[in-house]
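Render Spermidine synthase in 3D.
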Amino acid sequence: MMQLLFGVTLFTGAALLFWIQLVVSKMLLPVLGGSAAVWNTCMVFFQVALLLGYLYAHGSIRRLSGRFMVFLHPVLLLAAASLLPVSVAGLGDPPDDANPIPWLLRALVITVGPPFVVLAGTAPLLQAWFARLGTRSSRDPYFLYAASNLGSLVALASYPTLIEPHLSLVDQNRGWTAAYLLLTVLTALSAGVVWHKERVQPAAGVKPTDVDSTVTEAAPGTVPALLRLRWIVLAFVPSSLLLGVTTHLTTDVAAAPLFWVIPLMLYLLSFVLAFQRVVALPEWLTSQAQALLMVALAVTLLTQQSGEAMPLFVLHLAAFFVTALLCHQEVARLRPPVAQLTEFYLLVSVGGALGGIFNALLAPVVFTGVAEYPLVLVLACLLRPGLRLRRDWLWQAAGDALLPVALLLFVVGVPRYTGLDWTDGNSTITLILVILLALVVFGFAARPIRFGLGIAALLLGSTLGADSDQLLKHVRNFYGVLKVVAQEQPPLHVLFHGTTTHGAQSLDPARRLQPLSYYHPDGPLGQLFDTVGGSSVTANVAVVGLGTGTVACYAHTGEHWTFFEINPAVVSIARDPSLFTFVKDCPAAPAIVLGDARRSLAAAPDGAYGMIILDAFTSDAIPIHLMTREAVRLYLAKLRPGGLIVFHISNRYLDLAPVLADIAGSLGLAARHWSDEDSTDDADDDAASASSGEASTDEKDASEWVVVARAPQDLAAIADDNRWQALKPAAGRRVWTDDYSDLIGALAH
């Protein structure tokens, strides 16, 4: 019964920790443009807050004595409840022209800091209390850590599938507050059990020092320093990889919405499996699986495989999960006697916090790309179990260093001196060599240093691979990774945010100012401007999202266009004439306003614009706060009579047309939708272009657009074009608001 009480309390506390992380992150996401870095920064804050909670738990166990000290924690939980429910009101706005991370961290401290820190102390404290009970199961209380992480896992899995689709943010906040009060009661009951047990059986010596002969008291300073360091490093690696794999996959493979949920669930699952005691998982099996997956991943990066996204997702996630599991199995194996339980958890949380700080705060400053991910992959391989120094250690060290160096020289030298290309999937010779490389590196698996350096050789070779595109600019900041490449056929400059194209410009002087990609004259936006361009509708235009500035080429002389852009790096790229000249040379000479578009538009005069174009993307993700019912009401207030609101909703993962249909229907607006599947990337189009002698491929991308107006007559210019289909709301579907959205429900089928 006591085991059940403590297990339920730990499960509830851990679930609340992750539930509030998601709620607060969603509250703060809109004012920062929906960047994935918002989540990474929030993760760092919560990891540091978790560390402070563990520090409080360790200090209270070490410094306080007596049976009544167990009631300190319930009292602090109750005191922190006075700051609930969580609110972001009164925080002010983040800076538009400076790094928003300090503002975000300050906002998190104010909104949720004290309750989270106290809540974070629950897990180590309850495990330490449980160890004092003197029961058989309390002799090794570390299994409760599995229950704790299981609670986190359940909260994380249920949020996007059960909580978010059915509860508004206000209701989520209220529900979390009620659950927090329930946890306070459960914690008080647990404290009462400990107090009663020690009062009734004071002679039993219900200290963890007397519980089991294998779990004996040790002086506070007897844990070896190297063991402490190993706990920290083994916790650092999975924490860093958690953010690293998320950033890599959302920028270098595909930008799936809510993709961070899956790595985090796998991270928590690795803790559960490592600390549970129901089924023994052989560490050697995990080690072999990690070696195999690491080699496969390194070979994939070397050969620059870029086929279907799903197999790449699975490979990266599998390698991450098995690596995290291996590290956490080592942490569990090296756990100390229960006398050092709180110190152990404190140092594990130090490693987790350092991993988050390295990825979210240091890496964006130090690296222009996502270099932290491969670096920590190599570190994970170096930490594999099996490192042993023998009498012939000198020969070991020589082999561990020289063989990977020879491997690197081979990987770099083959394409340079033989003309072979590691990325050529059609070459039989290349395929044979790649297989041989994989077998050689896998053969290093029993020797961690040699294996880690061998993986490093393959990963380094992947960065030196042949690339037909010339990299012109590569920049990374809070809002993501941007790069501009010079494409040869046809000659273009292309802007990428992650793997998503954000605009292109032809280098042909005759076609330099022709809109390309999603904005092609033959696409929905081009056809819309063909009918309304140069009219009173386009006399004053607001465009949310700058990109390369392509849309400005639809302006006419004398018109006033204003672009709203949150990312300073995008503004710098669009204004650099060596990269793109749309902003410089297009007729309207548009103004650019830096900052969150919704906040900036709110300051504009009512009825200021004849057209508002929403073209804001963070890689492939559209900031949700720009397409809620309240946001559309704001656009309507800034729109003159007869004006148009134009949404660019092209997306590989979300079907957003029904979302806009419901919003328009709820406000009594008219809406039309055109999903243009035509792209010059198609083989048939390529052949046709080649036969006619025209420039071919990659000049037009498939795109999807929605036009919204106050009345059907305002859409008369496109009403007779059957490609623009009327958009109707669905009965019974909940409308997206600032307080409610359902990304899972919007996933494209």
